[in-house]
């Protein structure tokens, strides 16, 4: 796996963010987000899903991601491997880490929480994946979730199942539904074929980013 590490200015230890990509894999979009987080004072590691590959073919992406999403242990393994790298970075404060993910990367973040990993916050966009029964009770931090109201992949029934799981586990959770937005509304338009129901919404993309930054400021503040 080939991730992307962005470091803030200075030499001291800082809080850190593990950043997960959509199912297509790590791209310049996530690298720019990692850089933006570093500018805010965080150590940021955008992790890889496909061994350095970006899967622009929707069928190839589904063939790899669907089995991954159906296997929580494998999903957690990918997240834990990335987390191990982030924790060993000398600039990282290993006791102050949040996980932010989009789509499949958001599912990885949630599975780390369900595995009881010590995180300060979890944010998932378009990744409202439910887990194995009872394991959400292991989540030890606030969970923020964002989804487009017109997302056919994370449809209302999927949203309801996710929120029911969080509520039953007494998780400190929030769900923001962005009106009129499709799946992957946060991701700028790409030059390859995408699945039906996928589309960029610039205004809501900016709002979701601001919501995530506000979550980090609340749960993982950067102190000078």
TrEMBL record:
Pfam families: DLH. GO terms for molecular function: hydrolase activity. Residues 3-218 form the Dienelactone hydrolase domain. The keyword Hydrolase applies. Keywords: Hydrolase. Belongs to the AB hydrolase superfamily. This is Dienelactone hydrolase.
């Amino acid at each position: 796996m080939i991730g992307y590490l962005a470091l803030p200015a200075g030499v001291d230890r800082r809080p850190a963010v593990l950043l997960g990509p959509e199912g297509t894999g790590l791209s310049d979009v996530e690298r720019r987000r990692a850089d933006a987080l570093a500018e805010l004072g965080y150590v940021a590691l955008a992790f890889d899903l496909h061994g350095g590959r970006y899967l622009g073919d929707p069928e190839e992406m589904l063939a790899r991601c669907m089995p991954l999403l159906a296997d929580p242990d494998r999903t957690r393994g990918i997240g834990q491997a990335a987390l191990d790298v982030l924790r060993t970075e000398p600039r990282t404060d290993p006791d102050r880490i949040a996980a932010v993910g989009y789509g499949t990367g958001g599912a990885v973040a949630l599975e780390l929480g369900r595995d009881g990993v010590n995180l300060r916050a979890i944010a998932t966009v378009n990744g409202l994946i439910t887990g194995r029964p009872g394991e959400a009770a292991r989540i030890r931090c606030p969970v923020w979730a964002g989804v487009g109201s017109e997302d056919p992949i994370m449809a209302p029934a999927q949203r309801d199942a996710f929120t029911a799981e969080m509520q039953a586990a007494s998780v400190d959770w929030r769900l923001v539904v962005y009106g009129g937005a499709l799946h992957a509304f946060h991701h700028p338009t790409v030059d390859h074929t995408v699945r039906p129901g996928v589309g960029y919404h610039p205004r809501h993309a900016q709002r979701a980013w601001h919501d995530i930054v506000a979550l980090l400021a609340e749960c993982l503040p950067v102190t000078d």
